Amino acid sequence: MSLRNSRPFLAWRAFAAAWRWSPGSACQICATWQRDAVCGTCRQRFRHAGHRCRCCAVSLVGLNEVCGRCILRPPAFDHTLTAFDYAYPWDGLITRFKFSGACELAGPLADLMSDALWTAAEQTGFEPPDVLLPVPLSAARQRARGYNQAWELARRVGPALEVPVQARWVERVLDTPHQTGLPRAERLLNLRGAFAVTAAGRAGLTGRRVAILDDVMTTGATLDALAATVRRAGATAVQSWVLARTVSDDAAP
Ligand SMILES: [Zn+2]
Ligand SMILES: [Zn+2]
Description:
Layout: H1 7-21, E1 25-26, E2 33-34, H2 40-45, E3 51-52, E4 59-60, H3 68-72, E5 79-85, H4 90-99, H5 106-124, E6 131-134, H6 139-145, H7 149-160, E7 170-172, H8 184-190, E8 195-197, H9 199-205, E9 209-217, H10 221-232, E10 237-245
Parallel strand pairs: 5-10, 6-9, 9-10
Antiparallel strand pairs: 1-2, 3-4, 7-8
Helix pairs in contact: 5-7, 8-10
Bound molecules: zinc ion (2 copies).
C-alpha cells in the first residue's frame, strides 16, 4: 500500500480539508469560536438602543427629531445613517482597521454596517440614493496608509444595499492636517476647498440623490464639506452613511 492510500494519510487529509474549509473564527470582541467575525451575542449586547438626531445621528436623550446644533446650523447633508456609537468595543475594532493596517477587518465591518443600515433605513423611511460616494483621501494619505478605509467599506456596502458606487466622481485636492482634537469651526475652515468634483462627477451628479460614506463621523465637518461640494455640482439630496458616530462632537477619534 502506498503512503497516499494509507489510513493515517487519508485521515490527515480529511482533517486538513475540514480545517481549511471550516467557516468558523474567533469573535473579534469576546473571542468565542463561532461563524461570524462578531458573534450574535456581542452584536446584541453592544448595539445602540436609543434614539438619534435624524440629521447628524448624534445620540439624543429626549424625543426631538433633530439635535440643537443641526437646527442652529443645518449641515449640507439631509440625513445620517450609522451602525454604531464610536465607543467600546467598536472604537477598538475601527482603530485597528484604520490605523493598524488591519484591512482584513473591512469585510466584517462592512457586513455589520450593511445590516445596521438596512435596519436603520427601514425604521426611518429609507429613500435609496442613486449613487454612493466614499469620502476620498488625498493621494499622499492613501499612499501612506496603503488603502482608503471609506472605499474598502463602500465597495462592499454599496452592493449589499443595491446602490452603485462611484469612487472617481470626487477627489481630495487639499490635504488637511490631522483634525483630531480640533473644534468644529476650525475643522470646517481647514476643509474649505478640500474636495473637488471630477469631470465624470460633473456629468453624473446633476439631479442625483447621493449618499456619501465615511468610517467615523466626529463633528461632521468632513462630510459637511463633501456634501456641500456635491450639492454645488447639482446633487439634489445628500445622505451620510457612517460606520460609527461619536457620542458627542468633542470625542474625536
Ligand atoms: Zn462575541
Ligand atoms: Zn444633529
